Amino acid sequence: MPLRNRVRPDGELIATPARGSLVGNRGVLHDDAKRIVRASNSILWISCRLEFNGRKQEVMRPGRYTQLFFLDDAVALAAGHRPCGECRRESYRAYRDAVNRGADDPVDNATDLNRRLRTSRNEPRRRAAIAALPDGVFVESGGDFRLLWDETLWRWTPEGYVDPIRAVGEATVLTPELSVDALRHGYPVEVHPSAQ
């Protein structure tokens, strides 16, 4: 039976056998029986490479952080995570630089970035014209989570993107505003190949 450690674009955790292209964490969310007992236990919400320096970990080891799996970088951003500064250093720097591009109050360090992302994650979701949003943003439309990519809205499934439709009208934006700004200012988000 699959563990409840796959992340939807709205940040909720589900159980599915589908894997993902990134792993991340929000602290220790599980108990000794590998059941999710909380939504977050940390201000540090990151997304990491599946493999890094040959490190091996037991998934949901008691007392250790809960490994969460994302279909891709766009899902991780929508769920409120940012790139890891160690295993995804280049992506982290690109994200931080994009957040700072044109900012009146630039981010000083990773702790400051984590605080601002938490604030952005906790803000109420807003509606916006889809045409005004950058590629890589997730919206909720017609009860579906949809990725905006190349003027198309792709429906998210744990296995990949399906059912493309024209990107028109308004929708509720799922991606936190800080990450929307990063995408708008050139963060090179990685998207699952099914959105082609």
Task: Give a description of the structure.
- The protein is of the alpha+beta class.
- It is built from 4 helices and 12 strands.
- It has helices at 73-78, 89-100, 110-122, 177-184, and strands at residues 6-7, 13-14, 22-25, 46-49, 68-70, 82-83, 127-129, 138-141, 144-149, 152-157, 160-166, 170-173.
- The strands form 3 sheets. A 6-stranded antiparallel beta sheet has the order 7-12-8-9-10-11. A 4-stranded mixed beta sheet has the order 5-3-4-6.
- Helix 2 (89-100) crosses helix 4.
Principal-axis shape: globular
Proportion in helices: 10-25%
Low-confidence stretches: none
Q: β content, as a range? A: 15-25%
Average residue pLDDT: 94
Give helix and strand order, one letter per element, not per position.
EEEEEHEHHEEEEEEH
Number of strands: 12
Helix count equals: 4
Strand line-up of the largest beta sheet: 7-12-8-9-10-11
